[in-house]
Design brief:
Blueprint: E1 5-7, H1 8-15, H2 19-28, E2 34-35, E3 41-44, H3 45-52, H4 55-64, E4 76-77, H5 80-97, H6 105-123, E5 133-138, E6 143-148, H7 153-157, H8 167-176, H9 189-200, E7 204-217, E8 222-240
Antiparallel strand pairs: 1-3, 2-3, 4-5, 5-6, 6-8, 7-8
Helix pairs in contact: 5-6, 6-9
Length: 241
């Protein structure tokens, strides 16, 4: 099991499912197999590990922990240029997967790009401990996870709206109001753009900062904000499409 390529029987044993289940997943697109020259199915061990990983739990734990735990290198974007490169790769993977219409692909990419870029723009030179963004996705399971250990929305918006005093109000402002900051920056505008896309397209958003969580859904096209028990140091986002 240490080799990189696994035959279908070895892959089934690794995931603890039947060979028939793997064949069905291949046909449905849930877990695609590679093909040898002779047409035999095989799987890359790295791909099986990604499929098995709980990407939500890794990102949320990283964003919430007092001390930064280790995360897989493939999901970590320390600098904005690495995030941009991975975002381009995500767009290509999304198109190749064929799970979305051509007009929806750029909208999903735009939502991911806006949230990730916000993390870098609003924490530039002010990361509390570990810089960068956790960025993981599974195009066949149709979700993306983003997280950072930055200052969070409340502290960021207090620079231009000092009367804000809780995480819930900060999220509402970020997703509904246009704010003017240091020219030419307009803080919060990116998240308003994200909300508008998610409310008018089949894209679901769950965004948390501090102890406030905001959900934006296409059906019924609304936004709700709730308080959570777990505190997120920076931000944590899950996007479903």
């Amino acid at each position: 099991m240490e080799k990189e390529r696994l035959a279908i029987g070895e892959a089934a044993k690794y995931l603890q499912v039947s060979i028939d289940t793997l064949r069905r997943w291949d046909v449905s697109g849930k877990l695609r197999a590679e093909r040898s020259v002779g047409g035999h199915r095989y799987y890359l061990l790295s791909g099986l590990k990604r499929f098995q990983a709980d990407l939500d739990a890794i990102g949320e734990t990283w964003a919430a922990s007092e001390q930064s735990p280790n995360i897989p290198e493939e999901y970590y974007c320390e600098q904005s240029d690495r995030f941009s490169a991975r975002l381009n790769r995500f767009g290509m993977d999304l198109r190749m997967a064929g799970v979305l219409s051509d007009n929806l692909v750029p909208l999903v990419v735009a939502v991911v790009g806006e949230i990730g870029d916000n993390s870098f723009a609003h924490n530039l030179g002010n990361w509390p401990d570990v810089p960068g963004v956790y960025f993981a996705y599974d195009v066949h399971k149709r979700f993306i996870v983003l997280a950072d250990r930055g200052q969070g929305v409340l502290k960021t918006l207090r620079r231009v709206k000092p009367d804000l005093d809780n995480d819930r109000d900060a999220l509402v402002v970020a997703f509904t109001e246009f704010l003017s900051g240091r020219a030419p920056e307009r803080r919060g505008n990116g998240l308003k753009f994200v909300r508008e896309i998610c409310e008018t397209n089949p894209i679901g958003l769950r965004f948390q900062s501090g102890i406030a969580l905001i959900r934006v859904s296409w059906e019924p096209g609304r936004m709700e904000v709730i308080q959570t028990l777990r505190n997120i140091r920076g931000t944590f986002t899950r996007i479903d499409f």
